Structure formats: structure tokens, C-alpha cells
Amino acid sequence: MTAEIKIQEKITVLIQPPANYKVVFQNDDHTPMEFVIELLTTIFSHSESAAKDITLEIHNEGSAVVGIFNHEIAEHKAVESTKLSRINGFPLQIDIEKE
Fold first, then answer.
1. Helix, strand or coil, per DSSP, at residue 65
2. 25-50: burial string, b at 16+ Cβ within 10 Å, e else
3. Which of 11, 21, 54, 66 supports an S-S bond with 74, CB 3.0-4.6 Å?
4. 93 or 13: which carries more pLDDT confidence?
């Protein structure tokens, strides 16, 4: 006689939310503050006032976080900002760091 045994197991799946990434602008002596403010208002959607404050932080502290996004958006905004900087002849350095 053959007996069939059914075993039920509970499987728990842990889903972690995607990590956030910081976009960081580095200070340099060649990129004008007006250009940085323009990037912050157009690409990162900061208000004019917030963009000026962030630009001063970059200038005074050497760097500043300009936005926190999922990886794809952070990378896209960093690449877009870098391309615009190079097109305009500026050496602005932009980093992406895991939060």
C-alpha cells in the first residue's frame, strides 16, 4: 500500500526597498556659481533660494548633496549634469553615493 504525504511549507520572502543614492556636487575653482544654480533649478527642481543655499554650501564646505533618488534617477541626473557642464566648458565633478 502506498501512502502519499503532502507537506505544506510556509515560505517567507523578505522584500527590501531599493536603496537610495545621493548625488553630490564637488567644489571647483572654474565652474561659476550661476551655472551650478541653473543646474540645481532645472535638473534637480530646486527653488532659486534653495539652489543658492546649496551652491554656497558646495563653495564653503567643498561638496554638498543636491538630491537623493533611486539609483537610475540619480545616475541619469548626474550624467545629464555632467554633459551640460562639459558642453559649457566646466569641469564640475559629480559623485553618486549609496545612502
1. strand
2. bebeeebeeebbbbbbeebbebeeee
3. 21
4. 93
Please report the pLDDT score of residue 4 as a whole number: 66
Q: Which of the four CATH numbers 2.60.40.1930, 3.40.50.300, 3.30.1390.10, 1.10.10.60 does domain 28-98 have?
A: 3.30.1390.10
According to the model, what pLDDT value does residue 14 have? Answer: 84
Averaged over 15-29, what is the pLDDT? 95
Query: For the chain, which residues make up each domain, given as ranges?
Result: 28-98
Span 44-68, pLDDT tens digits: 999 999 999 999 999 999 999 999 9
Report in angstroms the alpha-carbon separations of 65 from 39, 44, 89, 90, 98. 13, 11, 23, 19, 12
Neighbouring-strand partners of residue 29: none
